[in-house]
Amino acid sequence: MTTDNSSLPTAVHHPSPIKLSSANYLVWRNHMHLLVAFHNLLSHIDGSSVPPPATITDGDKISPNPDLATWTTSDQKAALLLLSSLTEEAASEVLGLTTARQIWLALENAYSNASVERVQSLRDSLRQLSKGTSSVTDFSRRFRNICEQLAAIGHPVAEIDKLHWFLCGLGPSYEVFSTAIRAAKAAPLFRDLVAQAESHELFLQSLHGTASPPAAFHAQNNRESSTQTRGRASFPRGNSVRGRGRNSSTRWPPHCQLCRTNGHYASACPSLHTFASQANLSDESIAKAFHAQCHVTNDTPDWVNTKSFLVMERNCRLLIRLRPLSPILFLYAMFL
C-alpha cells in the first residue's frame, strides 16, 4: 500500500514523452505497454484485474473492503499514466471514463479501427506516397508510419510490397538506383533498402550539390548539345547545312576548278590539256578565280578532310622549291 502510493507522484511527474495522435498509435501503444508494466499495473489495462467487492462480511458484521481501496489507487495510477500521454485530440475520446481499462479500450477503438474502409484508405495512401522534394529520411519516416498503422489494425504490409511501393515513391530521380535494386537476385530487407537509398542521396549531393535527378542533368546536356549543333556549318552559294547531329549523309558533289562543272575534280578534268596549252594567265586573275571557289573563314569546320589537307600542303611546299612554276600547274598540283 505504502509502496504504491509513494510511487504515484513519480509516475505523474514523469509522463510519457510520446503523445498519442492519429498517426502514431502503434508506437504509443508499445511504449505505454512497457511503461505500465514497469509500474506493475499491466493487469489494469489488459482486463486481467477486476475490482474486488466493495464490502466484506465477517459474521453478521459488514465492513468496507480494504482491498478495494488498494485496487482503486493502483487503477488510478494506471489511468494517470495513460492520460498524461494524450494530446488534446486523443483526450477528447476518453471524457467521462474512470478506469484504466475503459480508457485503454476507448483509445484502441478510436485509433485502431480495423474496418475495411480504413485498411483500403491506408493502403491507397501508401501506394500514392511519393518522396517529392523531401529527403529520403523524411520519406521513409512517413512510409513507415503508414505501415505501422496497418500493422496495428491487423493488416501488416508484406515485405515485397514495401520494397516495391518504396522504390516507386522515390520517383524518377532514383531511376538508376531503383533499377539496380530490382535487378538484384536477392531482395534486400526494407531497413537495408532505406539505408542504401539514404547513401545514394548523399552520393548525388556530393556530385551535384543537391539530390537532383540524374535524368534531368543528362537532358539538360542534350539540350545544350543540340543547341550548339544547329546551324553549325554554313557553305557558299547561299546554302546552309545543319550539323552532324541532323544530316550526316549530306555531301557536295565534286567540282572542277578548271571547267567549273560538277562531277569531277581538276586533276581528272577531260579538258586539262586544253587549259595547259592556253596563253599564260596572270597570277592575279588565277588567284581571283581560285578565291571565288573557296570559302574563307577563320574557324576550322568539322568537315575538313585532314588527310587531304596534309597532302595538299606537302605538294605546295614541294612545288615552291621547283620555281619557276606555271599557275595552271600550281592549281593542278594542289588537287592531286
Global structural class: mainly alpha
Number of self-contained structural domains: 3
Distance between the terminal alpha carbons, to the nearest Å?
118 Å
Percent helix range: 55-70%
Largest sheet: 2 strands, antiparallel
Order of helices and strands: HHHEEHHHHHHHHHEEHHHH
The tally of helices reads: 16
Question: How much beta, percentage-wise?
Answer: under 5%
Parts with pLDDT < 50 across at least 5 consecutive residues: 1-9, 214-220, 223-248
Shape: rod-shaped
Average predicted confidence as pLDDT: 75
How many β-strand stretches?
4
Task: Enumerate the strands of the largest sheet in spatial order, edge to edge or round the barrel.
Answer: 1-2
Radius of gyration: 44 Å
InterPro entries: Znf_CCHC_sf
Region (Disordered): 215-251
Organism: Artemisia annua (Sweet wormwood)
GO molecular function: nucleic acid binding; zinc ion binding
Explain the overall architecture:
It is a single chain. By secondary structure, this protein is mostly helical. The protein has three domains: 2-111, no CATH class; 116-217, no CATH class; 266-295 and 304-334, no CATH class. 57% of the residues lie in helices and 4% in strands. The protein has 16 helices and four strands. It has helices at residues 2-13, 25-38, 43-46, 66-83, 88-91, 100-111, 116-128, 136-152, 159-170, 175-183, 190-208, 214-229, 272-277, 283-292, 306-321, 327-334, and strands at 55-58, 61-64, 233-234, 240-241. Helix 4 (66-83) runs parallel beside helix 6 (100-111), helix 7 runs antiparallel to helix 8 (136-152) and helix 8 packs antiparallel against helix 9 (159-170). It is rod-shaped and about 155 Å long. 15% of the residues are buried.
